[in-house]
Amino acid sequence: MKSSGIIGSVSGVLLVFCLSISLFGQSESGSAAMEGTVKDPAGAVVQGATVVLKNGGTGLERTVKTDSNGNFSARVLPIGTYTVIAKAEGFAQIPVTVVLTVGETTPVWITLALPGARAPATEVADSSTISIDSETTGATISEQRVSDLPIRGRNLTEFAQLTPAIVQESDRSGLVISGQRSINSNVAIDGADFNDALQGNQRGGNDLVFFFPQTAVREFQVVRSGATAEVGRTGAGFVNVVTKSGTNDLHGEGFYFNRNRYLTSPDAFGQDLNNSQNQFGGSIGGPIVRDRAHFFFGIEKNYLRVPFVVKFQTIPGVTVPSSIASLEGEQHGSNNPTALFGRGDLIANEKHTVNVQYTNTRFRGDNFNYDTAQQDISVDGNYMQKNSSNGIKGALISVLSLEAINEVRVQVATDDRLEQPNSTSGQAVLANFGTLGGDTTRPRLFDTTRYQAADYLSFDTGSHRIR
Questions:
Q1: Domains (range + CATH), the chain
Q2: Among 422, 414, 456, 416, which residue's Cα sits nearest to residue 442?
Q3: List of residues 6+ apart from 391 with CB closer than 8 A
Q4: Considering the entire predicted model, what is its pTM?
């Protein structure tokens, strides 16, 4: 029996200092950033201009000022669409729309207009802009792709294979990012750890089971190399997921997918087996108090029945006892996970925002271990797998001054798994016939509780930025 007791993994209080002059395109875990320059119509930089950023969905506002070079910077921002207005004495206020994506620092160049003059063009970099200042290589899987593209089992991590240099391991189903084994990768949801402490990749293991509802995922970034020090754990590969949040408008979705034997063809052996899948779920989000408090909740459920046939090999001249022959025939495995996610966001005041999240996953799979639609291993040699996971996370973002911003994250997460054999009888491998008896490598038990606490301080001196 393979057993692991309660594992306490403490990330501790993390202070990461990264000194740089330009951070375009750098991976910021669970959030986004914006920086830019304000100029007058003649092309001269505007010092001391007030730049107001407002999230159109939630009403969140952030105010910064330009330095002596006309530059401004705003970090640790929720992704979304912002209206940016630069204010300076003697100039008209021209609103600019900027879309922020996860893990990216979006550059904006604002040219002010004289009162009554025609508004000048404002340049905003998009996702296709290549930054020569960034050491990060990767790609962003947009909200439209997550929502519209078909995905096997609605397992969000498989979207990562849309980016170059990423494949799936054949033995453990984990993500190989830039040639590194899956144990070396790092998965974060809204900046909080979502890793499997045993094998790497997403919490819950690398089996083909979703452990987070896809309906709750807004977008995510895959960093193949060059992840900044704040990410931690590894620089080999970083999956940076950000979830949906409630807005001032009430929105929701629902879905149902079905597959059954009447809609599928016989398998490669000509067998018309009883397969079925029912997958359904949905999400809803909206305001609790407009421009101040919002909620979001999503849940998904899957009932999957995958048939297989036990058929022993034939030995000429040997009569198989009826007790053994009765083990042949159609069997089925199941894969039935349930995953839910909820979050609440509070804009306490102009300086403080609070986020609280809860994740729960339950899973049961019978006859979980089979490789082909037809095999010569009796069903006694299979096993039942049962998993459960809970996670609660809180975050506080505080604007300490125009130059400094602080973010505190704490999380407690459990990941409990049990693999129980169908039979505890001894196993017999009969040459040229098949395998009888129970699984010799089980039961297996894995229980872990992970604690995480992190503090990120960002300070902008004008010439340098410290994080």
A1: 32-124 (2.60.40.1120), 137-466 (2.170.130.10)
A2: 422
A3: 192, 194, 203, 357, 358, 359, 360, 411, 412, 413, 414
A4: 0.86
Break the chain down into helix, strand, coil percent, rounded to 5: 5, 50, 45
CA dihedral 420, 423, 426, 429 (to 10 degrees): -100
What backbone phi and psi angles, to 5 degrees, belong to 197?
-70, -20
pLDDT tens by residue, 189-243:
999 999 888 777 788 876 667 789 999 999 988 888 767 777 777 666 888 999 9
Q: CA-CA distance, 270 to 327, in Å (whole number)?
A: 20
The secondary element (H helix, E strand) that includes residue 188 is strand 186-189
Query: How far is residue 229's CA from residue 227's CA, in Å, rounded to a whole number?
Result: 7
Query: Residue 77: is its pLDDT beyond 50?
Result: yes
Q: Which residues partner with 219 through β-bridges?
A: 242
Render pLDDT for 360-380 as a digit per residue (tens, 0 to 9). 999 999 998 877 889 999 999
- The tokens for 340 are 């839910």
Residue entry with tokens 């900027």? 98
- 344, 317 contact by CB (below 8 A): no
Does the pLDDT value for residue 285 go beyond 90? yes
Three-class SS state of 158? helix
| The pair of three-digit structure tokens given for residue 213, joined into one six-digit string | 């509802």
pLDDT of residue 280 exceeding 50, the answer is yes
Q: Provide the pLDDT for residue 453.
A: 95
